[in-house]
Amino acid sequence: MLWKDKPLSRVNSTLLSPDGILIERHWQELAGRRRAYSWLIGIGLLIAVSGSLWFANDSNAGKFFDRIPHFFDFAGDLVPRDGWEVWRALFDLPSPYFDGSLKFDYPEGRVYLFGPLYMPEYFYKMLQTLNIAIIATLTGAFFGFLLCFLAARNLVKSKMIRFVARRYMEILRAFPEIVIAGFFAAILSLGPIPAMFAVGIHTIGALGKLFFEVVENADMKADEGLRAVGANWFERVGFGIVPQVMPNFMSYALLRLEINVRASTIIGAVGGGGIGEELRLSIGRGHQAKTLAIIVLLLATIIAVDQFSAWLRRRLVGNQAFAFGGKQS
Amino acid sequence: MNGVSSLNIAEFEARYPDVFNPPALKRFLPLLIGAATILYLVYCWWFFSIGTVLATGQWQRAEIYARDWVSYAIRSTVRMSPEGTTISYPRFSELGDNPKPDWVVQNGRDVTITFGTGKSLRINGQRVIAMRGGEELTVLIEPDGAKPQGRLPTWATLKEDQVTVNFGFAGTADIIPERVVISRRFLGWANFVFDTASPFWNRSAGEVASMIFSGERIRPEISNAALAFDNIWYNSSWQHGDVWTKLLQTIVMAFVGTLLATLISLPLAFIAARNITPNFFANQMTKRFFDFLRSVDMLIWALFFTRAFGPGPLAGISAIFFTDTGTLGKVYSETLENIDDKQREGVKSVGASPMNVQRYGVIPQVLPVFASQALYFWESNTRSATIIGAVGAGGIGLKLWEAMRTNTNWHNVAYMVLLILAVVFIFDSISNALRSRLMGKQQ
Question: Which residue ranges does UniProt annotate as crossing the membrane (chain A) (predicted)?
């Protein structure tokens, strides 16, 4: 039986003209193929996910079904002796439970500024992490700014220069941050400066890419006008392109700042200093109040940075820079 | 028309006062921002004492470590005693148990070591002659130390009783009383396929192939091909098996984490979108829930789940899943709030059930965008998964970090970095290709 002679399903073929039957049959065929593909993709994904989950469970230290009954034991371990302990830990106030152990020695971490005026330990560490993120964003944005014009198709005719600039940024972006941090930690010893290098170098690549895409979408009329009056390349870029792309650049840099605060926390946890390291140590040692204090502080800071950056971005570019929801990596 | 008269200029200035005489704040704003940035950088310089750290950094190590990424050194010791001259290698040398390298030629008491063209070291009893680039240095070994004869060339240094001869990349030789310690460096990775314990070690690819396909069984219980695979997989210095398993864990973490996050955030986003669920309370609850998941950093989730599940990829999957449910949910609900309502109205007007309104009025509009964003997250999570692995959440991160902390395994670091870069580039291109097909040519 040829495909033409197959009976049509779900449609009374006597009601249709020959052309109508042909169209209906063609449509059904397409829809059937589409459905088959959807099923295939669905089944493929299902197999991939179950295989992956099995593999993950198999190579994990604890097994999922063995651990799940004890899942909230750890959350139970996080409950401090009383609610005020969290605030005492956060502001380095003496604890009534102090017994000489690290767990309750909150005032030890005070960082004295002038006389009796002190900064609580975790605020100081948070400031460290924030400064790492800001410096990394500033330097990354600076070098990304310098590089992006070389990678833009509408400004650089030479394919060679563009290729080199783009690949360079790509490598900076894809190179694992942790390796950069580890390499500089080997030279400069562990601390915030390797973290700064790691996050900063990654930022150059990530921002450079976003920047040159903005430059490529810039309106070239201003550039044409400058060219007509004999401006050189730097003048054209400086007066024709930079003023129109600056708001978008700033907005992307702010977006990056949000990401970098998180990134520098993570890098901190693997030896870059700052609040991340404190958090890892405190969770590892089972200090309930300290852990909760750090989580509260981190949460507040991240929300504050996100809100501030969202507000500033909205002022800079309206709603147009929200296309990808704030995740660029 | 040629030029603008002064009258015109005055007229222009009067017509556009904000362009020609902007308020002081606006005029000096860039300058202020610049000054504030510089002040801030100075403050940070002081805060982190960057100057001191950079100055005390051991920058000469950078070169050594960078060199270790792509090369390896073989050490050997030449001992000169009255009974004779012996050459020894460390126990786990890259050259196997019984090394006979072709760059060392021994002839009784006369040993010649070649470091490349024009660079060599000749040891004859208590007399050592180093040659490099036409220059020659003779060192006599006396009981109280090595004594260079004549002027020291720039490539040799004398420190107390020891003369160090530097052959550049090719290596160094320390001439000490009684012995000469040699470090000979070669470009490449040593024993990358088979380690020295393997029967296939130090054979050409052709020899190995003929052993696998037609040779006698080396070990009677398994075939040669299986033995070869086993030897590669458990190569003691490169640990291919472990590295690849850990890499697969990283890939799995990103894949499963993102997929689960997509599946969970999709229905939640419908609840969070105010145009789809017209219930203020439900919208706000879901949105704040997304904010919570997103703001509790991936690191906190990773540490938390590492405690709960023990170290391994389950912790990583859960961390990525939790964080990205928040981020994707936020993105999805914002997309849903910006959809075109005409299609929904059309479907509703023909009497479709609420479920069908979403299925035929909303999903077709947003599915390409949703899928494209999920792919984008998958791609970026492949990178994040490497980092959270280092805190114990599974994957190659921890292995990478440990290899770096030893400070001697930089070649292993290079190997893993290459693998990660390859994975990232492959996934980038897959995700880019899929995304541009989904979104059409519009972007």
Answer: 36-56, 129-150, 171-189, 292-312
Q: What pLDDT does A132 receive?
A: 93
A8 Cβ contact list (under 8 Å, min separation 6)? A21, A24, A25, A28
Residues 35-94 of A with CB under 8 A from B: 45, 48-49, 52-53, 55-57, 59-62, 64, 67, 70-71, 74
DSSP assignment letter at B152:
P
Fold entry, domain B240-439:
MetI-like fold (1.10.3720)
DSSP assigned state of B216: P
Output the CA torsion B105→B107→B112→B113 (10° steps): 30
Whole-prediction pTM: 0.84
How far apart, in Å, do the first and last CA atoms of chain A sit?
Answer: 55
- Does B85 touch chain A if contact means CB atoms closer than 8 Å? no
Residues of chain A with C-beta less than 8 angstroms from the C-beta of B48? 128, 131, 192-193, 196
The tokens of A269 are what? 């946890």
Q: Which two tokens stand for residue B359?
A: 């299925």
Q: Which residue has the higher pLDDT, B39 or B296?
A: B39
CA distance B290 to B295: 9
pLDDT score of A13: 66
**pLDDT by residue (tens digit) across B389-428?**
888 888 898 899 888 888 888 899 999 999 999 998 898 8
Does residue A176 belong to the interface with chain B, where contact is any CB pair within 8 Å?
yes
CB of A254 less than 8 A from some CB of B: no
Please say if the pLDDT value at position B232 is more than 50.
Answer: yes
> Which of A38, A45, A47, A52 is the mutation pick for testing B, counting most B CBs within 10 A?
A52
Smallest Cα distance from B140 to chain A, Å: 37
Amino acid (one-letter) located at A297: L
The residues near A298 (Cβ < 8 Å, ≥ 6 apart) are A126, A265, A275, A279, B297, B300
Cα of A2 to nearest chain B Cα, Å:
33
Own/partner long-range contacts of B173-176 (Cβ < 8 Å, ≥24 apart): B173/B113, B173/B121, B173/B130, B175/B128, B175/B139, B175/B141, B175/B146, B176/B146
| pLDDT tens, position by position, B42-101 | 999 888 888 888 888 888 888 888 888 888 888 888 888 877 888 888 877 777 777 778
Return the structure tokens found at A168. 């360079």
Tell me how many degrees the CA angle A12-A16-A18 measures, rounded to the nearest 5.
Answer: 125
